[in-house]
Amino acid sequence: MLPDAPKARRGWRNYALLLALACCWSSTYPLTKIGLGSIPPITFISARSLIAAAFLLVVLRVRGIPMPTEAKAWKLFAQQQTINSTFPFLLITWAQQYVPASNTVVLASTTPIFAFLITWAITRHEPATLLKLAGAILGLVGTAVIIGLDALETLDTNIFAEIVILIATISFACATIFGLRLTDYDPMVVAAGSLLFGGLILLPASLVIDHPWTLRPTAEALVATVAMSIFSSAFGLMLFYMCLTRLGTLTTNAQGYLRIPIGVGLSVILLGEAVPANLALGLVLVTAGVAAMTIPKDAYRRWRRRGG
Is 242 a domain residue? Predict the structure, then answer.
């Protein structure tokens, strides 16, 4: 049984957190591409999770916040990490060996659509309005425009890997919904506990399958792993639970569209990819989609009464 969605606390500070989350998570795909160059997927995910958990545990120690000791909390951490990180990131990291980054971004950006459908058809824990559906679709169209329609033409090249990415995306959508069960805990505590579980659960598989002591990772791969651990995993997961508590499921999912223009910029800087000529149009569509999904209901009604 899911708790009712928390009352969204609107304001520029909370939307700044949403933007910060998008910035942290937008680095995921380019950094993963760099890391996978010389580090196998299981070892890569386990290492980034353990490094991120260690970082957060040190910060919690400095802040004087203890980790919970009750079994209920760790059970929730384990369940949430499985559907929000361990399972989907294993799938995406494997699939990125066969699917171009642009295709991955297009497919992974469907998280708000799946979250909307799950909320509307199953959980109904917060209003799933037509305006939010329109915003989700508009943002998805903007995503396709930014990446370029050429990316969609090759979606059948590695169909199995692409289906795997969609399964991971559905898992992300479920995680944003069931993450509401953790709103009673400090976001940093949830992030640290979840990452620690995820890293430890994959460590035996890494030791048995990858033999990490035999690997010779490049300096770039090591830097990418540490950067992804601190920014994408540690800060990103902490901000995710903060946004989930303050803005709700559907609005938090809207950051997926904000990641696209940021991710394009990082791809240019880190991977040398070209900027699509239709970037400006895509940004307009993405901005409109995010606005539609995040606009307060009262503000929308006032606009309608004024004849908007």
Answer: yes
Cα–Cα distance for residue pair 193/179, rounded to 1 Å: 13
Nearest to 290 by CA among 151, 121, 142, 166: 142
- Is the pTM for the entire model greater than 0.90? no
**Close Cβ partners of 295 (under 8 Å, ≥ 6 residues apart):** 131
**DSSP character for 295?**
S
Tokens (6 digits) for 221? 């791969």
Name the residue with tokens 């009262």. Answer: 298
pLDDT at 246: 78
Question: Do residues 101 and 267 touch, judged by C-beta distance below 8 A?
Answer: yes
- 110 secondary structure, DSSP code: T
Domain that holds residue 259: 34-305
- Taking the C-alpha atoms of residue 265 and residue 244, their distance in angstroms, rounded to an integer, is 26
Residue 22 lies in a domain: no
In a domain, 60, yes or no: yes
| Residue 183: inside a domain | yes
Q: How far is CA 48 from the centre of its chain?
A: 15
pLDDT along the chain (308 residues), means of 10: 48 78 80 86 91 92 88 86 85 81 70 75 67 76 66 59 84 79 80 89 92 92 91 84 76 72 73 64 70 58 52
From the list 152, 154, 135, the residue with the least C-alpha distance to 256 is 135
Give the span between the Cα atoms of 282 and 84, in whole angstroms: 28
For the chain, the domain total comes to: 1
Residue 135 has which token pair? 């915003």
